[in-house]
Specification:
The protein is built from seven helices and ten strands. Strand 8 and strand 9 form a beta hairpin. The N and C termini lie far apart (about 65 Å). The protein is an alpha+beta fold and about 250 residues long. The longest helix is centred in the first third of the chain and has 32 residues. Helix 5 runs antiparallel to helix 6. The strands form three sheets. The chain has a five-stranded mixed β-sheet. It folds into two domains: about 100 residues, Nucleotidyltransferase, domain 5; about 80 residues, no CATH class.
């Protein structure tokens, strides 16, 4: 098919195509040409009988290989996060994934359907312990887990897995700090905070990178954010859940 877009001196545009464009499926085209084509039921049956078993077998083999490597290590550091199939509060499926920080390999995941829990907001909290329990049952000694600031996961870690060092992912924490400070800077009398937000975020990243994993060094970080009259504005950020589960803004 030939498609030509024409533009005149006045800026008007027109498109010419050598044949009409039909928005149709391959099966409809095959029917017009009198060609044999598989039906939807044949497609899904073939997918269930051949494709899914092969994919599952490949994943199981790779999972066993990764877990065998993890069980031989003394220190296992993981990162975890959840993802839903759609944004907002109307998601039907949620997947929680754990990744090995040293290799970047996915070592465990769990899919949760919204019908299994009370609401879509609970799917992340439901999938997280399943991944941890799966690895611990197979003999993996987890040293540290980094997650976002999900309240339910923080509570789960402190109650059910106190033997695992729980830390917040710096990217999620920095995103939350910038969002909170931006809202605070819109309030009357806090306008001077706005141009310093990016510097505070940068300092947070630097502190996380140079604290050598010490909660004492990192959880009491104070960044001067200018002054308002005689009262100094300070931002105190805690990003080790074992020390403090939330940030305090002293403005």
């Amino acid at each position: 098919m030939l498609s030509i877009e024409l533009t005149c001196h006045s800026g008007h545009k027109q498109t010419w195509e050598s044949q009409p464009v039909l928005k149709t499926s391959i099966s409809c085209l095959a029917s017009c040409l009198n060609l044999q084509f598989f039906t939807d039921s044949v497609f899904y049956d073939t997918q269930a009988k051949y494709l899914f078993p092969v994919a599952n077998e490949a994943w199981e083999a790779e999972s066993r290989h990764q877990i065998n490597k993890l069980t031989s290590r003394e220190v296992v550091n993981l990162s975890g996060d959840g993802q839903c199939d759609s944004p907002g509060h109307s998601a039907k499926y949620g997947t929680y994934t754990l990744m090995d920080e040293d290799t970047g390999n996915v070592i465990a995941f769990n899919v949760v359907q919204v019908s299994e829990v009370s609401s879509s907001n609970v799917m992340e909290k439901e999938g997280f312990p399943h991944c941890i329990e799966l690895l611990e049952r197979k003999g993996v000694k987890i040293s540290r887990v980094a997650t976002d600031r999900h309240v339910s996961i923080s509570s789960c870690m402190s109650k059910d897995y106190p033997h695992i060092n729980h830390q917040y992912d710096v990217w999620h924490l920095s995103k939350w700090v910038v969002k909170t400070l931006t809202q605070k800077a819109k309030q009357k009398g806090c306008e001077e905070l706005s141009p310093r937000i990016q510097s505070i975020s940068n300092h947070l990243w630097w502190s996380a990178a140079t604290c050598n994993g010490s909660p004492t060094a990192a959880s009491k970080m104070e960044v001067s954010a200018g002054s308002r009259g005689q009262q100094a504005q300070m931002v105190r950020i805690h990003f080790f859940p074992s020390v403090q589960s939330q940030a305090h803004f002293i403005l």
